[in-house]
Amino acid sequence: MAWLILLGAVVLAPAPAHAADQPAGGSTLRPDDRIVFIGDSITGQGWNHPRGFIHLIESSLKTKWPDGKWQVIPLGGSGAGVGAWQNFEKRSREGEVRLDAKEFEVGAALAQPADVVIVMLGMNDLLAPYVKPTEADIDAWEARYRALLDALRQRVKPRVLALATISMCSEDPASPKNQIRDRLNARLAALAAEQELTLLPVGQTMVDLLKRGRQRVPDFHVTGDYVHPNQQGHYAIAIGMLRGLGAVESARALEARSAEDLDRRAAGHANQPAAQPPPPWLVGTGLFNPQAWPGNKFDPDRGRLPCDGHIVAGRLTDPTVTGTDLVWNLYHPSVNFTGSDDPGSVDFTAVSFGRVHEVGYALRWIHSEKKRIVQLQLSSKVFAGSIGLSVWLNGHERYAGVITDEPHRRTELFAVLRPGWNILAIKCNHLTWQWQVTANLVQVNDDDLSDLHYTAEPPAGYRLIP
User: How many folded domains does the chain comprise?
Assistant: First the structure.
């Protein structure tokens, strides 16, 4: 019986079958293939979601071969990178390993031969991150990938070994993480060419679909949380895999279904006025602060840096600030990043790769016509990660804690705006995974905040008076 195995967020494949071995139409798939998907939470959702990409591929196979004997086995593990999958493979030789689809056991699935193995890994290597944005670390990542492929090849002896390129990490193709994703995907393409593997263009298919959708719907998405695919993202993954495997007609059929969904969505957005862009933040990144995380527990006092006092007061030209490795950028809250276009949102991975223990600052100057009490709402939209947050208003610290440990990842407190210019400052200490916070000012009682004016540049002549 033929088999297909899918691993992680990147996909790999052995030497393509000879033309004489391929079914009509050029597809490397056969009606009796056993299909096993192995990977991370994206693969897990491909099965656990009723219209996930694995089910879309199943449906395509059923349409092509109504009497086919193919099978699919999804083995996706949340949080897994290439190194974790090396561990799963080794452990499964001696004991039970179950991942996101609990009804499937890794050892049992890999104990039988496979016709097709699709490896999709790399997302968590970017997201955690397990990989630093250096050539040496990318070399080490590729070495781990090669070792995993060798183990799979020896163990299940697939007819086809396919590499799926990594899907989008945020929805800005030019973001720092997606730039490293491009470098990892280039390594996969070179590896596929070197070893005569099948390359599945999942990443580019998702980028192309996002671009088409945004032309018609300004807030069109291919992810539900800027990492995991939504329904359109599942279409993109299935289409990229089927195209790479030569199942062109099946891919076209899914493209038509995707287009129908987009048409329905676009019809609801016809003639809607363009939304006003939210005010920007001034964001500084590039410092590392491991002392803020003793034993991986956030300690805001131990995490104080000499430049903090100057930054929260807006004294950015002080030598204590300019003598650091901080890089400052304007950040406009965007539908491309976690937190979306919420005016108070800051996703620091929009301007920095987000290495372990990196620190991010965000500043806004706010002009008020009068003294007033406001509610300061602090929150985070991340689904994974620990974020140590400190917040100052006019130089006075109003919050210091782990915002991701708060109930529902949010808290509220009262604050006072002075007449004239005020400065809101955020210091966001990143540990691992995502790196986003939101800080919004909300009216109290009937006070209308429509007179507030925001800027991300120090106002002329501004000087904080404590």
Answer: 2
Q: Using pLDDT thresholds of 50, 70 and 90, give the confidence band for residue 21.
A: very low
Any domain includes 84: yes
The separation between the first and the last C-alpha atoms of the chain, rounded to the nearest angstrom, is: 76
Cβ atoms 132, 81 nearer than 8 A: no
pLDDT tens digits along 353-386? 999 999 999 999 999 999 999 999 999 999 999 9
Q: Alpha-carbon distance 308 to 306, whole Å?
A: 6
Sheet strand arrangement including 436-443: 345-347, 436-443, 372-379, 410-417
Residues 257 and 291 grouped into a single domain: no
- Of 213, 234, 267, the last residue of a domain is 267
Residue-level pLDDT at 276: 72
Least confident segment among 151-155, 216-220, 277-281, 339-343: 277-281
Q: Taking each helix axis as running N to C, give the angle between helix 202-216 and helix 231-244, from 0 to 180 degrees, rounded to the nearest 10.
A: 140
HSE at residue 394, side-chain half, CA atoms within 13 A, is 14
Backbone torsion region of residue 30, taken as left when φ is above 0, otherwise alpha when ψ lies between -120 and 50, otherwise beta: beta
Bond from prior residue into 74 cis (ω within 30 degrees of 0): no
